[in-house]
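New to this. Comment on this protein:
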Amino acid sequence: MSRPACFLDRDGTLTEERGYAATAADVVLLPGAGAAVRLLNRSGMAAVVISNQSGVGRGFFTLEDVAAQHEQLRQLLAAEDARLDGIYFCPHLPEAGCDCRKPGTALLVQAARELDLDLGRSWMVGDREEDVATGERGAAGGLLVLTGYGDDTRRQAPAGRLAPGQVFADVFAAVTHLLAGLGISSDIMPPVRPH
């Protein structure tokens, strides 16, 4: 049976927002990010990164640089006993009009096919409007975190765009809320504290 996923934005959600992060050294986990992924791992829900990386299309860094960044992300998470089930990213410019760039849903569909995921029971978590919109268009919904560009996103959102239950301080708070909402009891998981 297909399992649900928590799709996670990378920059500003799991890692510090650094503009166009070009090297592996630019990848730094936000507090609580490792604990959030570890909670997903223990719950049985897939943890999958969905990221726009237009710096490739702009010539700021290469596909090899992105691969090195993702390897660094995996290592940082492994040091916190956490792992990702998949990483998917769009390297194209915004004006390319591709469906793999968020808020397009092509990467969610690809991940669902390759990882046997149930999009109807999956959510997207990120710090931008495009993350929330991606979850709403291609999964069960989207949650906003106030790290990265999240606070600006919340302030600029039209009145009524974001429900109070869609906005969280960080990815750990969002994942904890998501799992509770899905009826996944904290009793079955060892306690996890954000670092």
